[in-house]
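Researcher: Please translate sequence to structure tokens.
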Amino acid sequence: MGQQHYAVPFLDPNSAGQVILYGVNYASGGGGIMNATGQIFVNRLSMDIHIDYFNITRKQIDKLLGASKAREHVMKKSIFSITIGSNNFLNNYLLPVLSIGARVSQSPDAFVDDLISHLRSQRLYQLDARKFIIGNVGPIGCIPYQRTINQLNENECVALPNQLALQYNAKLKDLVAELNDNIPGATFVHANVYDLVMELITNYDIYGFNTASKACCGNGGQYAGIIPCGPTSSLCEDRDKHVFWDPYHPSEAASVIIAKQLLQGDPKYVSPMGLKELQDLDL
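Model: Translation complete:
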């Protein structure tokens, strides 16, 4: 996307000194909003831990720039991208066998309300974050993993995961509006990832892809969607022709299309402004 620097992973030994001023990535495979999400992966890191790690980064920025300039850097020159939620369904509420107890004890409405409540209670604002982009959950019923385990046809998606995603997304959009109305000096941008990804899945050929159902890297079933990408996985000939890289995630080619839409600011996909406008916003 033209950036000279990338956000270094927080746990990378090189994520120290001036490099952190260009961004830090706190993402964790299998992690989610709730601490119980992704427990089968053992070493996953939840959002609570992501915030704890940012608190460490925040103190490092103070040491690099001094308290006053550090606060200005975080408030005016930093964008906080919160792209989280899918794992709370895929690796928690919808997890085969292990999730049965949770689904018996907690209705979908109650589970979604818990997710929104936990998001609302996070303390990034208290750590001087002011510019946010918050992505909703994509059409998780259409990923290769769900299509494979449910033995669907190429153009079919699993209804329940998509219904849960839409239910969560509606309440997330309300939360973003609530935060914009009630938190002074902060701007929250809503990224409609669901519709963006669904557009690529539905009209994949228009965007130059050959398939929106089969993973480029993976194993098992018609869509290579059971075993995640690894050293022994089957690999497609051209990853840029696949909407999905692995059983769960969009390919780099698909992600570039998504990122450009979020930058350009099409109100169908990003509101109340695009990322470029958010970057230039003088708070």
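Researcher: Any highlights?
Model: The radius of gyration is 19 Å.
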